[in-house]
Design goal:
The protein is of the alpha/beta class. It contains 13 helices and 22 strands. The chain folds into three domains: 215 residues, FAD/NAD(P)-binding domain (3-Layer(bba) Sandwich), CATH 3.50.50.60; 122 residues, FAD/NAD(P)-binding domain; 115 residues, Enolase-like, domain 1 (2-Layer Sandwich), CATH 3.30.390.30. The strands form five sheets. Strands 1, 2, 3, 4, 5, 6 and 17 form a seven-stranded mixed beta sheet that branches. Strands 8-15-9-10-11 form a five-stranded parallel beta sheet. It has a five-stranded antiparallel beta sheet with strand order 18-19-22-21-20, sandwiched between helices.
Length: 474
């Protein structure tokens, strides 16, 4: 059956369903094609389940330290099965909310696999969508004026390595685990690897991180990473940088045996499980790209312009699939921008320096703007200063004073070039920095804001005062 739409969205993840809602608000007849469940990776395999588990780990650690706050308890035990049930409850509640939002905005949802067709009897141009179903049911053909590809990404694997989902696993496997391993090797020191390292260590698993590059979290500021490494290693997490794994050496016995090279020397290591966290690749296979003029880059991501249009101007690509920042909040922003472009609405454009990035481990990390190395490379004449959480009263009240906020400003304009934070709750505080960056705020303006006392937010004002040469605390 052929059905007509103004917009069809391939993928009902965070970017896809938010984009659909925006389109419906603008009066576009809209459909989503989703092969699994609305909410996508973020809701079911990524952002939400991992943060729910990290919260369980944080509560466990808080109870273990309760005596420091005058609360006496017996020795706490971490119950992974109950933590997983709570995680599932959180996902279920949010999934119901997403389904309600989609229904209330009168968006049609096709629960099947969408494939882009080339020019055919349905349309003289590429872009009609064939919806294929698992059960014996005739395909639906969606004839749409515009298409947005929001198919997301999947965990990447190393060459010549087989993921057996038992001993060698990805992050998708860990969100469904029913028991904790005694030990784990994490290959990859990026955001995903670090968040799992934090959770697993905090609930009693022995963790080793193998990172092939010379620094974990290569996209983050050097001072932040240095502090993070110090904290994690003090806790007992082993971090091995410039360590290249030999995939041919992996031996699966009672434990996983791994060989890696570091400093031109060969080393062996073993653990109960091996987590591969080496990034994510675009979900572009079998969706009909070959039936269009859409072009992929060398990594397999879809090339788009500033409006997120592909080489086929009526077909757009948003989120992880286009090779930009692999962040849910970026996907939703790009989707709304793409729909506005379809509707002929002009709006402000966010630069890469206005996109916040967060790591939700223990400790948390948050950043926006340029790192100090990037500032140097771009030739800015800049000033930089840091303020420790030791200077903030609320941090002492909370019992978490490890961490700091670093601010970098342009000497000529006083504009903020970057804000980098590490410590408790900084993933909540970075929103204030995002607003300041969006409105092109200066250090002077941030320093003049009145921050409630006592609050962790005071560290933003203190950092602004420090870089202005007017430090009061710290």
């Amino acid at each position: 059956m052929a059905l007509n739409y103004d917009l069809v969205i391939l993928g009902g993840g965070t970017g896809g369903y938010v984009t659909a809602i925006r389109a419906a608000q603008l009066g576009l007849k809209t459909a989503i094609v989703e092969k699994q469940m609305l909410g996508g990776t973020c809701l079911h395999k990524g952002c939400i389940p991992t943060k729910a588990l990290l919260k369980s780990a944080a509560v466990y650690q808080q109870v273990k330290q309760a005596a420091n706050f005058g609360v006496e308890t017996s020795s706490p035990l971490f119950n992974i099965e109950q933590a997983m049930r709570r995680k599932d409850d959180v996902i279920g509640s949010l999934h119901q909310g997403v389904e309600h939002l989609v229904r209330s905005n009168k968006i049609d949802v096709y629960e099947g696999f969408g494939r882009i067709l080339g020019p055919s009897i349905f349309s003289p141009i590429a872009g009609s969508i064939s919806v294929e179903y698992e059960e014996e049911k005739e395909n639906d053909i969606l004839v749409s004026k515009n298409v947005i590809i929001a198919t997301g990404s999947s965990p990447s694997v190393l060459p010549n390595m087989e993921i057996d989902h038992i001993h060698i696993v990805t992050s998708d496997d860990l969100v469904e685990m029913t028991e904790l391993p005694k030990s784990i090797i994490i290959v990859g020191g990026g955001v995903i690897g670090l968040e799992w390292a934090s959770f697993l260590h905090d609930v009693g698993v022995e963790v080793t991180i193998l990172e092939a590059q010379d620094q974990i979290l290569s996209a983050f500021d050097h001072d932040i990473v240095k502090q993070l490494k110090r904290i994690l290693m003090k806790k007992g997490i082993s971090i091995l940088e410039e360590a290249k794994i030999d995939t041919s050496s992996i031996d699966k016995g009672s434990e996983i045996q791994v060989t890696y090279q570091q400093d031109n020397e060969i080393h062996n290591i073993s653990a109960e499980k091996l987590l591969i966290a080496v990034g994510r690749h675009a979900n572009t296979k079998k969706i009909g790209i070959e039936n269009t003029d859409i072009q992929l880059d060398q990594r397999g991501f879809i090339n788009v312009n500033e409006h997120f249009q592909t080489k086929e101007s009526h077909i757009y690509a948003i989120g992880d699939v286009n090779g930009g920042h692999q962040l849910a909040h970026v996907a939703t922003y790009e989707g709304k921008r793409a729909v506005d472009h379809i509707a002929g609405i002009s709006g402000s454009q966010i630069s890469e320096q206005e996109i916040p990035s967060c790591i939700y481990g223990n400790p948390e990390i948050a950043m926006i703007g340029l790192t100090e190395d990037q500032v140097k490379q771009k030739g800015y004449d800049y000033r930089v200063d840091k303020v420790s959480l030791q200077a903030i009263g609320k941090a002492h009240v909370n019992g978490h004073t490890e961490g700091f906020t670093k601010i970098i400003i342009d000497k000529k304009t006083n504009d903020i070039l970057g804000i980098h934070m590490i410590g408790e709750h900084v993933t909540e505080l970075i929103g204030q920095a995002s607003i300041a960056k969006y409105f092109d705020g200066s250090a002077l303006e941030i320093s003049e804001v009145i921050y409630p006392h006592p609050s962790l937010s005071e560290i933003i004002g203190e950092a602004a005062l420090a870089v202005e040469g007017r430090k009061i605390h710290g």
